[in-house]
Amino acid sequence: MDWGMKNRLSRLMPNGKCFFMPIDHGYFQGPTRNLEKPGETLQPLLPYVDAIFCTRGVLRAAIEPVNSKPIVLRVSGGTSMVGKDLANEELTTSLEEIIRLNASAVGVSVFIGSEYEKETLRNLATLVNQCEGYGIPVMAVTAVGREMEKRESRYLALCCRIAAELGAKVVKTYWCEEHFDKVVNGCPVPIIMAGGPKCETELEVLEFVHDGIQKGAVGINLGRNVWQSPQPVAMAKALRAIIHENASVKLAQEIYTETKGKK
Description:
By secondary structure, this protein is an alpha/beta fold.
């Protein structure tokens, strides 16, 4: 692996583990609850995360460039929640812009099984072709759009393997209750878990993250289940303990409870 690629990945995933904080939801959802002012939402969480996943617009408008965390730049889009099909995405950001913003990695969604499967996979392949020569890792995001029932191991394993085959260095996918280990084992590059819809309780979040890490995922890319939590800092600290300190669910919940009472 080239020095630049290895260096970027090591910054994003210290000791091979990672906690990415996504604040890119506005690119198709608009001003999501608790993310109306993304810079303010993000600030208290920065000590606990390894990288920020965002669009170039929010990066420039809301994130301090001095001593910033590494940036994973969202570079696909062009659709919205009120549009006909969320899967009809295009690449939105040029290679020159990616380099100008000093992104440590880029992220692009792929919609396997959708009407636009080929187009989104071509977006991924195009991005890999462009970024590989500059040592910039590409993260494939295995999105399912409104088709939530596809979050099962056979479908996720298919998505992750295809993304890896096309050159993604990391794949972000959903945790599933059954056979998640098969999803991980069938993908030759590291897998990072997405959060998906907000969970009902903090315990539910801690349990699925712990299970996924134990089954081979290298980390998480969780947003709503952190910054929409009643106690976002406590949640971030507890999740970091699971990822980087191999904490049990019990210990992580104790960290959450202890932290939530502090100012």
